[in-house]
Amino acid sequence: MKKLQVFVYGTLQEGEENHNLISEYNPIIEKDYIKGVKKDTGLGFPAVFEGDNWVQGEVLKFLKDDASEVIKILDRLEAVPMLYTREKTTTKNGLEVFYYKGTESLK
What we know:
The structure is a single chain. The N and C termini lie far apart (38 Å). This protein has helices at residues 20-23, 67-77, and strands at 3-8, 28-40, 46-63, 84-90, 96-102. It has one domain: Gamma-glutamyl cyclotransferase-like (Hypothetical upf0131 protein ytfp, Roll). The chain contains two helices and five strands. The protein is mostly beta strands.
């Protein structure tokens, strides 16, 4: 069954403060990297912007049946489109994932 795959790099990672928002969906978690630049926003959470560095994080894999509910939760948390935009990219390990890229308002 196809899964929703989301790369997270901050408060949604396992053990971090917002992971509980999606933990009930029992994501499969894999360490991975995406291209970009991770910056501290000074607001208690990071943001990733375009760049050529490898940003470490986790790929959360959700069952397709949970995809629309998980996306709603994540978009609301990430304040799309004001603070972040949901983008697609390919990880270092070749997985196609969504991730949340910081907007100009966070630079």
